[in-house]
Design a protein that fits this description.
- 2 copies of one chain form a homodimer.
- Chain A is of the alpha/beta class.
- Chain A has 3 domains: about 150 residues, Rossmann fold; about 160 residues, Dihydrodipicolinate Reductase, domain 2 (2-Layer Sandwich); about 80 residues, ACT domain (Alpha-Beta Plaits, 2-Layer Sandwich).
- In chain A, about 35% of the residues lie in helices and about 25% in strands.
- In chain A, the strands form 2 sheets. In chain A, strands 7, 8, 9, 10, 11, 12, 13, 14, 15, 16 and 17 form an 11-stranded mixed β-sheet that branches.
- In chain A, strand 5, helix 4 and strand 6 form a beta-alpha-beta unit.
- The longest helix of chain A is centred in the last third of the chain and has 20 residues.
- The interface between A and B is large, with 64 and 64 residues.
- Strand 12 of chain A pairs antiparallel with strand 11 of chain B.
- The complex binds NADP nicotinamide-adenine-dinucleotide phosphate (2 copies).
- The site of one NADP nicotinamide-adenine-dinucleotide phosphate has 23 residues of chain B, from helix 1.
């Protein structure tokens, strides 16, 4: 750490809560980029106390650690608190204390922000300090600031995001290799791309937390993780992917947030077909991307790494610089008027569907199936029949219809004697469909 | 304009210089999004005087206009000046006066910022006001703020951008239709995608101004438009595009800014081959995109509309919100330490090349050509010979080599008796080539 006190007016101290994957990246960047950062902030940023759970663990980065949170939280001389320990407790209580003590806070904690973000932001506002969380959504990709600042003169209509790298990696390999999910997931675990317990990723829960944060920002609203309708990718098959491909689509796990005409907000995470011509279709491997549809700006997309030690740390340290500049400028946090907008239940969403039915290859089956769609006000856009006898399948794409109607239609289809099974069903996101 | 003074502590007045393509979009957004903006700023933003050249012209938006700049510049009661008139003079002098009078300034003027940006930023800093110019680079795409703030803890190594919509539209159509440039350009002019005088676009000059601004931001340096080595797209042929395609590349007009190991900065705009697998390769039509390679964050890409009334206005009004918030928060502009980094002459850049030679189909021609490359320290990666007799051509791809050596080699090739002409030469941007 090259110190040259002569060219600095001031030093700000950054305390860390956590020195794991992200925390060690943060410590590395603060140290290795110290000179540039000083030039950009107008003050040097010094690493203060670093709190971990187990002080005896061996560490990659050479910094002194402690297990005493009071050396950071509310501590005299610590200006900015970086929380990279994760989880709701004790992070929630520690950050609340830090904000109340006048410390600015930077966090990468999507769980915490997607559940208790509003209460923490209020505390930050009340105590005239910053609360920044760029790294909590899509890692290295700058999306919080663009949403909050660059688009502040615009109206965001819809946000579609590939928000989870693990699932995008799995779907990419399934698409490119024609493989089923199970072997690809096993391989991803062996390679370290997926956790031993992959539920948070493949179940869509990690993406749901990020979708809630994005929806809150995009629509100046309170949206929490539990407002997000969530389906994971475990039911996606190689057949679904092949069917999609044949018709010009790819399957992605999307987080979708939308403000409707009635000011209700829909937020959902589920696998969906998107046209291969859509910019999100070409996002491969573990990359993330966020596609924004705004009234005036039109379509925007932000692409980059959603996780990893240094990429995530880059976003965290960017936030630290923001907080430091605001502190030096004596700036108060801009307050945003947040409206209580209702959450639209998923049944009320208007969506297009792909359905794959195992049917008996008998005269009249198509007409009985079509009649069932008609009874539920779901209109069919296209249909293919494949195979014969016991192996016959109907592949249907609907027009956009009320989700609740599609679900009722699917239930009614199951009761038809010549429909043996609903082999698959998935939503289609295609703007060409009104 | 729905005014509800009860819920506002304060009103800020925004004066406009210009009410053309961008200015009328700005007036529209300030009016139509007034309520959301008030919620986001914590004060209402009111449109103040609007200055135009010709007060008698009929206007799309219903606002009073004047030709008296003193109603805006330095005027009591005008808090923020939006400059959307374009050109260096009188914009430069007007904005300097506004900043000195304590007004914050928002501009979309790439010409002005890429030539006199440093002097204006200094004036803004000295008078503790904001100077924002998000719309000057890539229209609606948030790139200035992400670069200045989100990446402030990182080190940007290289920026590659599709920075001009007109040329990307032309190259997209040439690529997809196999057409030559002239008819596509004529068509683009008829459709309003290209100006009657297309020089600024097809000559690369518009992109060069944006590349200079990006380089200044990415590397905390002073880079002006004249530092940018610039080649346009007029020499790109259907044959070049077909050759590129055959080898897995597409041709894009790229703005490339790079900081080298010796801290020198290279900035250039020219058509280049990029691999079809590169995220920039799939940017179609008039869209812009900026690809950033950063040490910690890794690869990032920002995509959206680079021009147009409302897209550009979205960026301008986002900046107005930033300036208004800073004003209300009593914030000073963060000062960034800018280093005087040398500009690397284009001859010193290390680049890969595609060359197409018309040759005599004679024994030994390949060995004489290869020897010439060897004499100039340019090593050949791959070579194809096509056609026979008078029609014979050699298509060569070099390894990365010093630009000056390639140029000298090309001159020497012209002197070979069996090389009839250099039919084409273009740089190749491919990271797989060290
Ligand atoms: N990993 C990523 O790529 C990524 C990307 C975006 C966001 N995030 C978010 O960043 C945060 C950190 O993730 P991570 O991957 O860095 O986690 P990690 O590797 O598990 O590190 C957690 C760190 O916090 C410390 N810690 C945990 N609980 C503590 C407690 N109660 N008291 C004191 N110290 C405690 C741990 O101490 P020990 O070292 O002693 O165990 C460890 O140093 C999470 O909110 C995560 O969601 C991560
Ligand atoms: N158009 C785009 O898509 C786009 C995108 C990004 C950035 N920009 C930048 O935005 C700026 C404006 O572009 P534009 O396309 O909106 O230009 P424009 O349509 O030509 O409008 C220019 C406006 O400025 C007024 N004006 C020009 N010179 C003036 C003077 N000396 N005194 C008073 N008023 C004057 C004109 O008045 P009259 O109406 O009376 O002629 C007109 O209203 C330029 O810097 C441009 O580079 C444009």
């Amino acid at each position: 750490m090259a110190h040259d006190p002569s060219n600095t007016q001031r030093t700000l101290t950054v305390g860390l809560l956590g020195l794991g994957v992200v925390g060690s990246g943060v410590a590395t960047l603060l140290r290795d980029h110290a000179d540039e950062i000083a030039g950009r902030v107008g003050a040097r940023l010094e690493i203060g106390p670093v709190v971990v759970r187990d002080v005896n663990k061996s560490r990659d980065v050479d910094v002194a650690v402690t297990d005493d949170v009071s050396t950071v939280v509310g501590a005299e001389g610590v200006d900015i608190v970086v929380e990279v320990m994760g989880g709701i407790d004790p992070a929630r209580e520690l950050l609340t204390r830090a904000l109340k003590a006048g410390q600015s806070v930077v966090t990468a904690n999507k769980e915490l922000i997607s559940t208790h973000g509003a209460e923490l932001l209020t505390a930050a506002q009340e105590h005239s300090v910053r609360l920044e969380y760029e790294a909590a959504v899509a890692g290295a990709i700058p999306i919080i600031k663009p949403m909050r600042e660059s688009l502040a003169g615009d109206r965001v209509r819809k946000v579609l995001g590939i928000l989870n790298g693990t699932t995008n990696y799995i779907l990419t390999r399934m698409t490119e290799e024609g493989a089923e999910l199970a072997p690809v997931l096993a391989d991803a675990q062996a390679l370290g791309y997926a956790e031993a317990d992959p539920t948070a990723d493949v179940g869509g829960h990690d993406a749901a937390a990020k979708a809630a944060i994005l929806a809150s920002l995009a629509f100046d609203a309170h949206v929490v993780r539990d407002d997000v309708y969530t389906e994971g990718i475990m039911s996606v098959t190689a057949t679904d992917i092949a069917n999609a491909k044949r018709m010009g689509y790819v399957i992605k796990l999307l987080g979708i947030a939308e403000e409707h005409e009635d000011a209700s907000i829909g937020v959902r995470v589920h696998p969906a077909w998107i046209p291969t011509s859509h910019p999100l279709a070409s996002i491969r491997e573990a990359y993330n991307a966020i596609f924004v549809e705004a009234d005036a700006a039109g379509d925007l997309m932000f692409y980059g790494r959603g996780a990893g030690s240094l990429p995530t740390a880059s976003a965290v340290v960017g936030d630290v610089v923001t907080a430091a500049r605001a502190m030096l400028a004596g700036e108060r946090l801009p307050s945003v008027a947040v409206a209580d907008k209702p959450i639209r239940p998923v049944d009320e969403e208007i969506v297009q569907y792909y359905l794959l039915l195992d049917v008996a290859d008998e005269a009249g089956v198509l007409s009985r199936v079509a009649a069932t769609f008609g009874d539920h006000d779901v209109s069919i856009k296209s249909v293919w029949q494949e195979g014969e006898g016991d192996q016959a399948q109907l592949l249907l794409i609907t027009h956009a219809a009320r989700e609740g109607n599609v679900r009722a239609c699917v239930e009614a289809l199951k009761d038809l004697s010549d429909v043996n099974a609903i082999a698959s069903s998935m939503r289609v996101e295609d703007r060409r469909e009104g």
